[in-house]
Write a structure and sequence with these properties.
alpha+beta, Immunoglobulin-like, 2 domains, 3-stranded antiparallel β-sheet, 9 helices, 16% strand, globular, GH, Alpha-1,6-glucosidases pullulanase-type C-terminal domain-containing protein, Pullul_strch_C
């Protein structure tokens, strides 16, 4: 999501931090190379959203059907490795290396606003929150926690590790981080820490906390976000053997509770569209999971992650004609941006603001 690795170039960008769509000046290669990197990152994230299941089948950016175990990164390591969702813990930041807000502040173009960086922070945490499997959040992710770009703060004391639960400060810009693990990056770090436009205000921190709380409430509004078995996410392939010869065997796509729509070579860059479907009598193989006694009952959910710096739209024939509406928690949110998200049933057309996660739900007919 963030780009690169702790041991690579510090400015290498990823899906959330502006790769291809908002260059920071780092040489990633040609535009075609950047597009391929972004497409590959999207596939990796999609496997992660499906609980990193080794057997989950998706259509990759080339239009090929691949299992999670056939999508590779880090020198040939499979992205999909788990047999069930409870075997994977998903996170975008942890105690090691820079905090989420700090790495976003380092990798994004210097000229973008602090509001944009705050939205990227929330986009990253919302992807984790709406992923199948076990979500893990580094303390302070929800309040834009900063260690002033210290990448190894185990011995940096409270000065760099402070968590301010009054929400008056996120601890950005309290000083140049210690020499031992940070000296090589000082030329990049120092001007950013000295620039007051990088520092979030209390209003930014409060908004981040509220948005984070909203997305957790969305996760717990439906068991469809917390599927417990691999078969609940996607049933195994079915092979039909004809009576003529083995060469005529057919491999049928399984019923898909979790599915991705913006796939193949015609994908919209920076856009991930995931649907989660509950079972009903018309869908053999999918059981109904959303209980009838809860306040919010959804038969179909579409989550759109827009990492683009601009409002973007996406249309899908598969998603046409549904009764989707913005999730009630987002429809009543204090975030005025997410409220601008829209869906047009006649065309299956979704419009989502820049750097925004929008959740659309179809209420179950009772």
């Amino acid at each position: 999501m963030l780009g690169g690795s702790p041991f690579g170039p510090p400015l290498q960008q990823g899906f959330v931090t502006g790769l291809l769509l908002e260059p920071n000046g780092h040489d990633h290669g040609t535009k075609d190379v950047e597009k391929a990197m972004l497409a590959s990152a999207k596939d990796h994230i999609q496997v992660g959203l499906a609980a990193n299941l080794r057997g989950f089948v998706l259509t990759d950016f080339e239009g090929k059907e691949r299992k999670g175990s056939e999508v590779f990164c880090y020198g040939g390591t499979p992205v999909g490795y788990a047999f069930c969702p409870t075997e994977t813990v998903n996170y975008v930041s942890a105690h090691d290396n820079e905090t989420l807000f700090d790495i976003i502040s380092l990798k994004t173009p210097v000229g973008i606003s602090v509001e944009d960086r705050c939205r990227m922070n929330h986009l990253a945490t919302s992807i984790i929150a709406l992923t199948q499997g076990i979500p893990f959040f580094h303390a302070g992710d929800e309040m834009l926690r900063s260690k002033s770009l210290d990448r190894d703060s185990y011995n940096s004391g409270d000065w760099f590790n402070r968590l301010d639960f009054t929400y008056n400060s996120n601890n950005w810009g309290v000083g140049l981080p210690p020499k031992q693990k940070n000296e090589n990056s000082w030329p990049l770090i120092q001007p950013r820490l000295a620039d007051p436009s990088f520092k979030p205000q209390r209003s930014h921190i409060l908004a981040a906390v509220e948005n984070f709380t909203d997305v957790l409430r969305i996760r717990y509004s439906s068991p469809l976000f917390r599927l417990r078995t691999a078969n609940a996410i996607q049933l195994p392939f079915v092979t039909l053997r004809t009576h003529h010869s083995e060469t005529e065997d057919q491999r049928l796509l399984p019923p898909e509770r979790v599915r991705f729509h913006n796939t193949g070579p015609s994908w919209v860059p920076g856009f991930i569209v995931m649907s989660i479907e509950d079972g009903n009598e018309g869908i053999p193989g999918l059981s109904q999971l959303d209980p009838m006694w809860v306040l919010m009952i959804f038969s179909y959910i579409v989550v759109v992650f827009n990492a683009c710096p601009t409002e973007e739209s996406f249309s899908s024939p598969t998603l046409r004609g549904r009764t989707l509406q913005l999730h009630p928690i987002q429809a009543t949110s204090t975030d005025e941006t997410v409220k601008k998200s829209s869906y047009e049933a006649s065309t299956g057309w979704f419009t989502v603001p820049a750097r925004t996660t929008s959740v659309f739900v179809e209420p179950r007919k009772i």
